[in-house]
Amino acid sequence: MKKSYSYFFYSLFLGVLSYLSVWILLFILSNNHAIPSPTVTIIKMWEIRELLGLHMLASSLRIIIALLLAIITGVPLGILLSMFPRSDHLLSPLLYFLYPLPKVAFLPVFMLFWGLGNFSKILLLFSIIVLQVIILVRDGAKMIPENYQRIMVNFQASIWQQIRYLILPAIFPNILASLRVSIGIALASLFFAENYATDYGLGYLILSAWTKMDYPEMFAGIFCIALLGFFFFRAIDALERFSYKE
Amino acid sequence: MGIIIKNLNFIYEQNQIFKNTDFHFEDNKIYTLVGPSGIGKSTLLDVLTGFKKPQSGTISYQNVQKSEMLTIFQNNQIFPWLTVSEALALPFKIKNISKEQTDSRVKELLKIFELEALAYKRPNALSGGQLQRVAIAQGLTLDPKFLLLDEPTSSLDQEAKEEIQDRLLDEQHKRNNTMIIVTHDIEEAAYLGQEIILVANQQLNKLENPTFGRENRRHSLGFYEFCILLRKQVRQL
């Protein structure tokens, strides 16, 4: 346990250090006020630390809820498609049509149908990530060796037992992979999801700072998104380690 | 008693694998199936367990339910995410057997199969022989009346092979179940099979094993002579 804590702080330190190095390099090379110095930004972050905390909390909650919804709906749908080839034949073309669409383009539709509150923001994030969860889960379930399924039939396992003892553990790495990809995309999409009718959220913070031309504050928001991404990714790593611990 | 095959016809990809085949698998015996690759040895196991449906013919299960038959596959028998003790507990969980009973049966199996030191290891940390021992232990958890094994020692070195073979004989002796073992290895067929089935010409040809049951037969002259005879017969197929 102690070892994993020290590794966490070591990787956090390494992440921040490399992030800062690239930032400093860009700051020196660009010599433009649009890229503020890290020192000024860090001072700014300290000044608005409470507000930053609230923005991070609001964004985290939206992402966590969207991820949970995507898992709750995407995993069963992906499993269903893998188990019933006919449903896969029917639905896959639709999935492939929807997958490359830029969901943010539907933002006005989301606002019209589900209002300006949190629901439409979460729904936008959900719509961006759910398709890749479905596709990764379906492909993972299809890759399960035939022998494994025969072993379950051997033991007279019911369909639910096959899902519980075979399919879910077998696709767990795919669920984690889909989460990793989704987190990156969801964080990037915050910028769109939080640019209307809200006072809290990192997307909102960045946009409002940009409008005010307050670049240190804008970079503070960007840094916080990076930090959030780090924590989410580490949480998934921890989940993976916990599930496969000896 | 046992499994009686009558007039079995099985065609796979336009190849007739079995044609009007008859056979009677009796209770409490060990059968080894030998024959060239692709002749239908593994297919027969699939037909017996119902994984593959024959085009015609009957298979009557007398005094045995399909649920009392179990196949141990050549590889990929143990799920990679399960530890050895979890793998042994899986069949009990599926049968909804209580946790206390499962724990005590798993403990017993770990002891019988000398797997206690490996109880918390996953398949990737086990050798081929250890893996096969776990697979057999898992196969025997629910005490199947018919245990079907598809090349159980094909990927093992000689030492591990002999260990698994002796263990199979031991378990069959203790449990009095029927084992049907598919193998490419003539010595294995001669050592394990009480009756050897030569699969050829779309038929199952039975051959009694005169050396079966003799003490220390693995290195006896009689055993070697029988292996030579068997090898000749397989070559002539």
UniProtKB/TrEMBL annotation, chain A:
InterPro entries: MetI-like, MetI-like_sf. It is found in: Cell membrane. The chain crosses the membrane at residues 7-29, 61-84, 96-116, 122-144, 165-192, 218-236. The lineage of its organism: Bacteria, Bacillati, Bacillota, Bacilli, Lactobacillales. PANTHER family: ABC TRANSPORTER PERMEASE PROTEIN MJ0413-RELATED, ALKANE SULFONATE ABC TRANSPORTER-RELATED, MEMBRANE SUBUNIT. It is a multi-pass membrane protein. Its main location: membrane. SUPFAM superfamilies: MetI-like (SSF161098). Keywords: Cell membrane, Membrane, Transmembrane, Transmembrane helix, Transport. GO terms for biological process: transmembrane transport. Belongs to the binding-protein-dependent transport system permease family. Coiled coil: none annotated. This is NitT/TauT family transport system permease protein. GO terms for cellular component: plasma membrane. Residues 56-240 form the ABC transmembrane type-1 domain.
From TrEMBL, chain B:
Keywords: ATP-binding, Nucleotide-binding, Transport. Pfam families: ABC_tran (PF00005). One of its GO terms (molecular function) is ATP hydrolysis activity. Residues 3-226 form the ABC transporter domain. InterPro entries: AAA+_ATPase, ABC_SmlMolc_Importer, ABC_transporter-like_ATP-bd, ABC_transporter-like_CS, P-loop_NTPase, RLI1. Gene3D superfamilies: P-loop containing nucleotide triphosphate hydrolases. This is NitT/TauT family transport system ATP-binding protein. It comes from Marinilactibacillus piezotolerans. The lineage of its organism: Bacteria, Bacillati, Bacillota, Bacilli, Lactobacillales.
